[in-house]
Write a structure and sequence with these properties.
The protein is of the alpha/beta class. The chain contains ten helices and eight strands. Helix 2 links the parallel strand 3 and strand 4. The protein is globular and about 50 Å long. The two termini are 20 Å apart.
């Protein structure tokens, strides 16, 4: 709810439904995800988000606002089923997340014994389909490294804010994989929502299809044929980590 560029973005309505619910409902279509939890903060400003998610029967976990790594550690401990738990991370501002793409990333993780696998965004996949998969063991290792090692470099604060940053900055410590997209998905489109123009683009897409579960393939084809819509947020730049 505290987005700097678009406050309250996650509950902005699209066709009468909060944006975050599109993300969650689409993830329910995954063949592999067993449990979906919205991991937000203890801040009072998240109350509207929490109410919306609970209204749609989604579990909500409230944890640290600044230390997102700790929030992930705490929520993974609460819902832990075994030492072999797998965590799928999707940010709440990706209302066009595709469960088939998510499942492809999960499959690569499961069958090739990785610690961490991510979609190759933005190099070979459109931003907004982002998904990361990592083991509970890898998350615990990162948490211990960041919170117990006083010799870490100046990125220590960033590691707490960005859950998986330590993993992909230290490939010598983790087995890391990427799922790359075909030429069809190698487009300079932006389907995450950080600004009003991002939201306008996503809203245009849903208004066109009138389908909560429109696939990534149809969305990209639509943008290929409608450059005026695709370019609505062309000048918006992603914040750098």
């Amino acid at each position: 709810m505290g987005s700097e560029r678009l406050p309250g973005k996650v509950i902005k309505p699209i066709l009468g439904k909060p944006m975050i619910i599109y993300t969650l409902n689409r993830l329910k279509k995954s063949r592999y995800i067993d449990k979906i939890v919205v991991a937000t903060s203890l801040s009072e400003k998240e109350r509207s988000l929490i109410n919306k998610c609970e209204q749609y029967d989604y579990d909500v976990f409230k944890g640290s606002e600044e230390n997102v790594l700790k929030r992930y550690k705490d929520v993974s401990d609460k819902y832990k089923e075994s030492e072999e738990d797998i965590i799928i991370r999707v940010t709440g501002d990706c209302p066009l997340i595709d469960p088939v793409i998510v499942d492809n990333v999960i499959t690569k993780f499961m069958y090739e014994d990785y610690d961490y696998v991510r979609l190759d965004v933005p190099d070979t996949f459109v931003r907004g389909f982002d998904v990361e998969v990592f083991s509970k063991k890898a998350l615990d290792r990162v948490f211990d490294k960041v919170h117990k090692n006083n010799d870490l470099d100046a990125d220590n604060t960033m590691y707490k804010e960005h859950v998986t940053l330590y993993m992909y900055k230290h490939p010598e410590e983790f087995k890391i994989g990427y799922v790359k997209g075909s030429e069809f998905y190698q487009k300079d489109y932006r389907l995450c929502v950080d600004t009003e123009l991002d939201f306008k683009l996503v809203n245009e897409i849903y208004n066109h299809f009138q389908d909560e579960f429109v696939t990534a393939k149809y969305v990209i084809s639509f943008l290929d044929k409608n450059k005026d819509i695709a370019n609505l947020n062309f000048e918006i730049k992603q914040k750098q980590v």
